[in-house]
Amino acid sequence: MRIKVQHRTTYLYDAPPSSIVQILRLTPRNYEGLQVRSWRIFLDHDANLVPGEDAFGNIIHTLSLNRALDDLTIGVEGEVETTDTGGVVKGAVERFPPGLYLRDTPLTHADDAIKAMAHDVIGAKEGLDGLHALLSTLHETLTFDGTRTDVKATAAEAWAAKGGVCQDYAHIFIAAARSMGIPARYVGGYMLRTDMQQQNAGHAWTEAYVPSLGWVGFDPANCISPTEAHIRVAMGLDYLGAAPVRGSQSGGAAEQLQVSVTVGQSRRQQQN
Amino acid sequence: MAFNEMLGSDGGVRAPYAGVSRWLESVNLDQLDRRRAEAELFYRRGGITFAVYGDTQGEERIIPFDIIPRILAGKEWNVLAKGLEQRVKALNLYLADIYSKQESLRAGIVPEELVWQNPAFRPEVTGVAVPHGVYVHIAGVDVVRIDENDFYVLEDNARTPSGVSYMLGGREICYRLMADLYGAHNIAPIDHYPDELFSTLCSVAPQRAGESPNVVILTPGQFNSAYYEHSFLADKMGVELVEGRDLFIRDDHVYMRTTEGPKRVDVIYRRVDDDFLDPLVFRPDSMLGVPGLFNCYAKGNVALANAIGTGAADDKAIYSHMPEIVKFFLGEEPILKNVPTWCCRKPDDLAYVLEHLSELVVKEVHGSGGYGMLVGPQADKAAIADFKNRLKANPANYIAQPTLALSSCPSFVEKGIAPRHVDLRPFVLTGANGVKIVPGGLTRVAMREGSLVVNSSQGGGTKDTWVIDL
Amino acid sequence: MLSRTADNLFWLSRYVERADYLARILEATSRLAMLPGAGDTAWASALITAGCYDAFKEIYGEPTTETAIEFLAFSDKNPSSIRRCLETARFNARAVRTALTVEMWETINGAWLELQKMNAKSFATGRSSQFTDWVKDISLRIDGSGHRTMLRNDAYWFTRLGFYIERADNTARILDVKYHILLPEASAVGGGIDYSQWAAILRSVNALTAYRWVYREELRPWLIADLLILKPELPRSLAACYGAIVTNLDSLSNAYGRHGKAQRVAQTIQTALQNTTIDGIFKIGLHEFLTKFIADNTKVGQAISDQYLA
Questions:
Q1: A134–chain B nearest CA distance, Å
Q2: Domains in chain A, number
């Protein structure tokens, strides 16, 4: 499927910061489920934008600017061709063995409540069975609700709040899987939705390692395996490792953030 | 029975201590007491203080200094120094390996999970080349002595070991207050440590920095317990002592803000932990680091000492594999011994440890400063029961070792002169031109009778360490 | 030099100077408050001069001698009490101790250690002068040890700039709070209270004796304004402060080979002070003149900060 993505992030500063440094993980990388047709990042002000790669193989851009600005918009525009792989991730860049993805991080730390849930749900079930059981438990237990958590929420906090956004679903899934010795990781990207083209955020889901299959995607917020509607952009141990923008400013005052994401099927293909 | 470094095993005075023994017979306790008071005044005046974590009073304390020096004969030191050099070489080779080819993992030298799941392992620096392959520029290897010939490594501190300012301060006091004893020995000098440190740091600067790289020390600030040491070293090396907010990034290079405008920085001797170095890569809430620093580091535009991720080589679980690491990378037998270690993450080891808690020393894998440890033979029943629960709750967090009979040295304590247990932290520098160690190190002494805990945060003191020509 | 080091040195001096100024206000007001009929307003006026009247009222309501002294001298709730000023000064000093001489560090650190042992109760009512004398003595020692022991380089110049920017601000504020009793028509009112008020102003800038040496006549309000604003001989006059600010900024620009906004703005203020008379000032209005000066002085502080300290 050919999908077009437009993603704009605008920062409005009450008082302009004297300098800004950001790491952007906004560019997808080819694998069997996705081919990039065109992709570009644009800024509405002159700044340094240096491409690179992080240790996990994600494409990053380092944005830096040493000038005071009232606002800054980071835009992404691109088109990709996706293929349904039944959720199995093949041909992606793998820099680390699965064992690395058992690491504990503050955002994905499994507290006793999550450990107990994981133990109940996954128990002795092997491979995909356990992970599917986890997927449905999360779907049944959690309520999709942006008011229950904020962007800094940990898996434990979201599980206690019994809800959150896709990021929280992913963190809980990862925490539970890792606590049972299953390597799991966080994926950031976009998703084509039939119900809405205009979205106010990207999407997030997870991948877990199943020895017989390799890395397999799970989208806990939607209780499905990723399909050709999912555009995989970056992967890491948790949200922080795959965040579209990680930034820091010096000086200046509180920023307001406006995000708009448009994901649609390319017109050319719709006409076919 | 612990080895007494002055009296040896047969009760006769050992040769290195002949001078000290004679001197101790000639001085009276009042004289010693006066000298001790003067030494304390020296520390107070100079503000050579440290803060104790968890001390709500925020008081600035001084570490007790015991004026009676500890003596090592040159030939003893030479063996020790060779062992330290070997050990630190192996640490560096091991780190270079786990952050690149990971051959030691494939060869099964270290269990994989001790790398991949080690909190101090930093996947982010995998593939990042460090200048001259040096990761641990400054190591503080804690060594204890058991008898005439056996030195054991207790801990490899490869992150940001501290204490060197106390080593140098102790020597300064001995110059001033112990002239009689000092003059009677031929003591290997240590005063050039700051110069050696400076040249070590310069040697790993990026090439474009040229002849005189700009070296700085990065401190978390004046509330850090080792702030005095940071300012002391900056002063002795003649470099700036900076905080994160003094630095900024432009075009992938690090600059410091000066009254004359931005000045490029080439080497950062950082006394800030990995977690806090760059909020864009590590802890996002860090206010102590520099946003974007990691990127400059990964591009080789600035050198960090120690490198990021060195903690992956010095935790107490990796420690138990050090003899194999030395053999694998250097093809040599380890010169320094390793204390037998039970890793509680292994069920068999855990079972043994739970059985024998009252005989063992139990430590947290990532602990330091003597916090969170149990000294079995000296613990009461409640403490042992408490540790049993902790061990069962999180076994992988603990290791256990036999209670070593740390050697003792004559020390001046309230009751007069009596033996007290000591360890030794030599500081090992590694730069582009190899390893340098100033002779001796910081001797830490457990001032309480019978105590085996030498950490300053637990009431330990320090002594000057003399390596004498013998 | 690191910008932060310069910043610490600059603020170290400013806080020491501020503590000294507060001590003088305390002392002058204590005297004034003992006069019949003057006590009621004296402490309110002192709190306004110190810039903390609103904060005070919120906690204590109407000032009394005890509460005002406690607040100005010791209170932790007042971010610019003398105690807090000295603590902040010591904090700045500790951050840059290698840039200070041993003498300076020991003076500041010693003062801080002594301060730990003091509180309002250490000084019985009516004996606050013991404390204010101690504070004045400390500031003299810090100023003196810096003057006698520091190398004449940028570190020294930044400490001096801190002293003088703060001092100019303080002098201008004292005048501004009291300007109504300094207007020429006020002399017609005259009377004992006014005389005491005038004397209090001079005391708070250490200039009562100096006044007599300069003018050799009884206290006249416009001459007091003249002395405190335009007389370069008086170390706390605005003219004297700006003479020193310009000199120290010039030393910096010579050493660094760069002349910037701070130098330009300071020079403009100095020239204006040199070219005006007290009559000219009363013509535009004393209050208006002082308001503008305080704003200009803040601009110089900001320019120094932008140019060197940020």
A1: 23
A2: 2
Q: Measured between beta carbons, which residues in chain B are less than 8 angstroms from residue A19? A: 248
Task: Give the position of tokens 């020239």.
Answer: C271
Number of folded domains that form chain B: 2
- Band of the pLDDT at B58, cuts 50, 70, 90? very low
Task: Report phi then psi at C264, rounded to 5.
Answer: -65, -45
Q: ipTM, 2 decimals?
A: 0.91
- CATH code of the domain in which A15 resides: 2.60.40.2250
Indicate yes or no: CB of C1 within 8 angstroms of CB of B256.
no
Q: Assess whether A108 and A208 both reside in one domain.
A: yes
Six-digit token string for B413: 């304590």
**Last residue within a domain, chosen from B384, B402, B420:** B402
The model's pLDDT over C35-82, given as tens digits with 9 standing for 90+, comes to: 776 666 788 888 988 888 999 999 988 888 888 888 999 888 898 899
Q: Please report the beta strands in chain A, taking only residues with DSSP state E, as ranges in sequence order.
A: 2-13, 19-27, 34-43, 48-53, 59-65, 71-82, 143-144, 163-164, 184-191, 198-199, 203-210, 214-218, 230-236, 245-250, 255-265
Work out the minimum CA distance from B316 to partner chain A, whole angstroms.
Answer: 18
Do the Cβ atoms of A55 and B127 come within 8 Å? Answer: yes
Question: Residues B439, B445, B450, B455: is their CA dihedral positive or negative?
Answer: negative
Chain C residues with CB inside 8 Å of B259's CB? 1-3, 6, 154, 158, 252, 256, 308-309
Residue C57 tokens read as 């009222």
Residue B4: φ, ψ to 5°: -95, 115
Tell whether C244 lies on the interface with B, counting CB pairs under 8 A.
Answer: no
Are the CB atoms for A269 and A2 separated by under 8 Å?
yes
What three-state secondary structure class fits A26? strand
Q: Is B424 left (phi over 0), alpha (psi -120 to 50) or beta?
A: beta
Is residue A92 included in any domain, yes or no? no
C95 interface with B at CB cutoff 8 Å = yes
Is the Cβ–Cβ distance between C78 and C103 less than 8 Å? no
* pLDDT given at position C180: 74
Which chains would you list as touching A if contact means 3+ CB atom pairs under 8 Å? B
C251 in contact with B, Cβ within 8 Å: no
The token duo for C183 is: 């207007």
Average pLDDT, chain A: 92
Q: Is the pLDDT of residue C85 over 90?
A: yes
Residue of B nearest to C154 (CA): B259
Compute the distance between CA of residue C49 and CA of residue C174 in angstroms, rounded to an integer.
6
Residues with Cβ within 8 Å of C284's Cβ and at least 6 positions away in sequence, in order, are none
> What CATH number is given to the structural domain containing B393?
3.30.1490.270
Residues of A engaging B, defined by a Cβ cutoff of 8 Å: 19, 21-23, 48, 50, 52, 54-56, 62, 64, 66, 95-97, 99-100, 102-104, 237, 240, 246-248, 250
Contacts of B244 (CB under 8 A, 6+ apart): B218, B272, B276, B286, B287, B288, B289, B290
Contact by Cβ (8 Å): B412, B35? no
- Is-contact B323 B336, C-beta < 8 A? no
